[in-house]
Amino acid sequence: MSVATDLRLNFDNSFVRDLPGMFLPWQAAPAPAPELVLLNESLAAELGLDLEALRSPAGVSVLAGNTAPDGAANVAQAYAGHQFGNYVPRLGDGRALLLGELVDTAGRRCDLHFKGSGRTPYARGADGRAALGPMLREYLIGEGMHALGIPTSRALAVVTTGQAVTRDTGSLPGAVLTRVAASHLRVGSFQYARAGADPVMLRALADYAIWRHYPEAAQAPNPYRALLSAVVGAQAALVARWMAVGFVHGVMNTDNVTISGETIDYGPCAFLDAFNPNAVFSSIDEMGRYAYRNQPPITLWNLTRFAESLLPLLDENNEAAVEIARGALDAFADEFEAQWLTLMYTKLGLPVPSGEPVLLNEFLALAAGTRADWTNSFRALAALLREDTAPLAATFDDPAPVLEWAARWRSELPDPVAAAAAMGRVNPVYIPRNHLVEAALAAADAGDLDPARALLEAITRPFDERPGMEAFASGAPDDFGPYRTFCGT
Ligand code: AMP
Ligand code: MG
Asked: Which of 6, 207, 255, 285 is catalytic?
């Protein structure tokens, strides 16, 4: 039997079938001594894959890129993108490969994709490799995000290659990440198709995106306008969720913005500890373009680039096309606001008010003013409803004004006991804390995966407070930070 049959990899590669011109066939670079580091068993089960076979030498050889399974597409995808506002006409998968598409046990189609599998024709000057730390980071944070209910790509496995990679910090273990995503269609994919000045390719890409992600748009009077509106809605919902959990993506370039509305490309991302709306973690984001508070307006900026790419499809008259695009983009502000208020008032155990969100805004000002821990603030409020003031005192430097605010908040809750329980279901105890992620990655570099596994255990059940796991629920220690993240490319 072939490796693909043993692993139960049943590829159906619609992208290469439908979109010639959007990829180059390519093979992964050989890994001299592959070793399986982490395998995502629950994801493998969802995909209907055979765990034993994946763990076997033949399976690890596939996950390292050494054996191309039968039926695999093996292509590097082409895309363009605005990087920190500067347009780059040809980016593409520089160190990634699309193995192919799988249809999971629930009938959903997803991409199976490598990262760190060697240079491709899109690699520009870079080495095509990935270090173990950043690949484990993508694994940990993606799983944390998934458990928090946030649409995201997910890691299936990380293998070390047995080949070192050289980075600023020295020589590091090399690794290949296998990930799964609803697709890897990006705003940058549309920018690439549009810039190619081949209207057939742009239309084929848009039709493909509709078929794959928004089939209902095909029935609309203007399917491409419906596609644009659907992506606006999906991205508004996504960034609202990031904001509610305090996630800072760090590199919201248009090539890292999906059409599906999933989070992809975990690079220099981080979670807020202390609430600071201006928080920036990435060392290369010198202007704070992708600061926490800028994420919604930057999402709209990115969607505007998407709309520009679609213009020739929206109407044959350019002015009419611009009007259509503007109308679709105008919906972003209201959609984001509605999602954000719903999420935040749910975190406060209240329905969204009909007027101004006064209680929420006051709370945010209090939390920002004292740099309270974002995640723990909401747990501390729920604790107040159980007459436990200790978490609040531990979270806020000056609890007095918060207690004054909380008295008014509490008076709006019809049933404080029910509210405390409901808040416990939406406010996480365990998130991928920056200091814990860094400690887990440092240990993994030294060959110890236990901290990464322990962290995964906590963050994959984020709402389920467990005795003995207090260390995973604490904010960063005082001697940690200011936290800086690096692309790790
Ligand atoms: P990112 O900002 O990490 O999403 O990557 C931006 C672009 O750089 C993409 O085209 C990547 O494929 C490419 N890239 C990043 N790191 C590497 C690397 N080590 N080797 C080759 N290409 C890379
Ligand atoms: Mg990227």
From this structure: 255
